[in-house]
Please model this.
Amino acid sequence: MDVRSAVGSNNYYVLFKLYNEQSPSLHAKKLVETFLNRSRCIALRIITRAPNVTLEFLRLQLGFGDIHEAGQFLDAHEIPIVSSLPQLQSPQLPTLDPLDYIDCKLAYPIAYTACSKFDKVDIKGQIV
Model:
């Protein structure tokens, strides 16, 4: 019931909180996983209206387990990550720092077009 109300009201914070809780029911976790990618895209569009957003903030808001999962999500949607520190290591092994950020002025149009696939609704009201 909580999942339905969180998805219906686009309350991504509650949805990811329900996903990360240790639920006794695996069915609830599987149900949330069906809405996870769509909700993360919608949340990313909302979050990128801010000036700059750190990876740690994205990790917390979008319900990722660690920084690398958040980085993979951003890479999949081709959103550039700006390093907060100069790279001291070799370029073959890029590391993500929680203080790395995304420049939302550049990221918002990319996030909007990358997540526009969830805007299509068919005649039955289902998201295509």
Q: What stands out?
A: The mean pLDDT is 77.
